[in-house]
Please model this.
Amino acid sequence: MLEFQNITKIYESKKKQIVGVDNVSLTINKGDIFGIVGYSGAGKSSLLRCVNLLERPTSGKILVDGIDLTKLSGSKLRIARLKIGMIFQHFYLISQKTVGENIAFALRAAKTPKNKIPTKVTELLEMVGLTDKRDVYPGQLSGGQKQRVGIARALANNPSILLCDEATSALDPKTTLSILKLLKEINQRLGITIVLITHEMDVVKEICNRMAIMQDGRVIEEGEVYDIFAEPKEPLTKEFINSVVSFEIPNEILKEVNGQVIKILFKGDVAGEGVISDTMQRFDVKGNFLHGTIEYIQERPLGIFIMELQGETAAVNEAKHYMEQRGALVEVIEHV
Amino acid sequence: MFDFPYFISMLPDIWKAFTETLIMIGISLSISLIIGLPLGVLLFVTDKGLFWENRFVKSIFGFAVNIIRSIPFIILLVALFPLTKLLVGSTIGPVAASVSLSVAAIPYFARLVESSLRDIDKGVIEATIAVGATPWMIITDVLIPEAKSTIIRGITLTVISLVAYSAMAGTIGGGGIGDLAIRFGYYRYDDTIMISTVVILIIFVQLIQLIGEQIAKSIDKR
Model:
């Protein structure tokens, strides 16, 4: 378990203080894939770097399985770091060492017996699918392959936590997916807790089970990814959700609409279309679909429909009430 | 102008002068590598934000390096006579000249090493800190290998500077090519010796540059 307790990070520059992280408390459970989302400058990177003390928080505690890392220094901190792997946007491999040597470096840091290193390197290369690249220098690898080496290096000492600092932001969409798949596999097979920061909502939707949204150094919203996708509360959260699940309806179309426009949301197993057709039959309203989609988040469907309801106000209200009773979330969208 | 038979007759003297130059450069280069490399590393790792950040050490060594670097070599040469006498027992000859050459070359090479290390992406160093590596591992396995190629170029530059300095050292008793050029070419208006020493030095420097560049390129895996 990883806990942030009242973490604050203040950067002192010549004349002013900049608050990078502002009193953040978060609990990340064992086995979570936890996504921290925010625009650049929101403090997510600083927060992540506090975990392995690449940056020391100005105040607060970082608890890993109950041990406060901020109390450690020197060799004790180094030993604690062996159990926290980290991968980076720009990979940061040692360019003058082969893939195999880069991984062996991490093993040597943990004082792995010399004769055990080659087999361990082989195992790690197999896990990330780079067995044939052992004697190649990083300069000859593609971005995705470099990140795989980074992952192998990060996992060398069987960490309990893997930190991902914008790990897929420098990769193309296809490579991003393959890296995310690998991370998910690692999470499931080895039970490693993954904390990742990103500005890409797609990444979170793809692999995270829990998430937090950061703005101006603070966590403004956190919870299960599914719940946040279904019912985002903060404007910034909505903005991020809209970047992957967008419901822009052209003004041209809205102009023609004279009934009430509503957004209907079905969570999980509620069969959306069934509820809507039942509603149309029971009440004297006419429905007109403007938009609709079913997103799968954490393999759970999330149905979102936008429709126009025409009819008497009373009937429309009853229809909405009925849909709510059947488990839908109904929201009226204002339009001109 | 150039008297070829005379040049042939002078070959043994030229060869002797050249070996003296090689001795001066050889000794002072070895010493400056042995002391300058660790000093350069120290200057780098004690800098702000690095794992051995230490303002006190950084400023003491940085100051000492700057002091030596700001003294003109010809003055340093004379000023170090007492030290040379103490270490070698004499102030004449290539070995004696190596003392002041080393003193001048150490800070020069150390600064070159420091700037080579500064070119390494900070992220690479950070990634190895995150992996839990010891400072010693980071120095020997990350900093030096990553900067290897630019350090080789630094060695090339140091050798070339030493060639120039050794000529100066030669004039006040060090011997070598520079001494020969001054004694014959300057004091006796001996064009043949002047031209041959200049040509030898040009070829020598070109060769060092070429070899240095080749090595630097061949070991770089980027």
